[in-house]
Design goal:
The two termini are about 25 Å apart. This protein has 4 helices and 10 strands. It has helices at about 30-35, 75-80, 130-135, 165-170; strands at about 1-10, 15-20, 30, 50-55, 60-70, 100-105, 110-115, 125, 145-150, 155-165. Helix content is about 15%, strand content about 45%. The strands form 2 sheets. It has a 5-stranded antiparallel β-sheet with strand order 3-2-1-4-5. Strands 8-7-6-9-10 form a 5-stranded antiparallel β-sheet.
Length: about 170
């Protein structure tokens, strides 16, 4: 059975979250493994999602993600919270392509972390607000992602963060 709805909440630490059903039915359990099978380690609340569900002893459970509509962010939304870091937003425009990267570390409590671009040892700063703007709640160490970067006052920083297969999904 196929259901459509919005992510109600998702907690990567707990390894699950719930989807509200557009038809008004019971909430649907979304397990971290199902999300990982779709190439994501987290997702923010409100994200539109189509899932194949199965009935279990505990209710409806997503077994496969068919469509995950992450928000399209605008630069003023993406970079909210960044001015507090002393960064002039007008200097962060970039026409660089999305670059495959690996998460070095990310601390959800601190609200930031670092990634390494493939083929480079340079650390790239990633702010929590940039993740949220692109539908991600956090990153896991070693996770493969794609980032678009710009030069900030203290080095490169991510101004767009996408799932590792984002570009491929746009060509489909």
């Amino acid at each position: 059975m196929i259901k459509t709805g919005n992510v109600k909440w998702f907690d990567s630490t707990k390894g699950f979250g719930f989807i509200t059903d557009d038809e008004g039915g019971r909430d649907i359990l979304l397990h971290a493994n199902v999300l990982r099978n779709h190439g994501h380690s987290s997702v923010v609340e409100g994200t539109r999602i189509d899932v194949e569900v199965a009935e279990s002893a505990r209710g409806l459970q997503a077994v496969e993600i068919l469509q995950l509509d992450l928000p399209d962010a605008e630069s003023d939304v993406v970079l909210r919270g960044v001015p507090e870091l002393g960064i002039d937003l007008s200097t962060l425009q970039s026409d660089e392509p999305l670059t495959p990267s690996r998460v070095k570390w990310f601390d959800k409590v601190k609200g930031f972390g670092f990634v390494n671009l493939f083929g480079s040892t340079e650390d790239v700063f990633v702010h929590m607000e940039v993740l949220r703007a692109y539908g991600l709640a956090e990153l896991a160490q070693g996770e493969a992602i794609c980032v678009r970067t710009a030069q900030g006052p203290r080095g490169r920083m991510a101004i767009e963060v996408r799932a590792w297969d984002y570009e491929a999904s746009q060509d489909a």
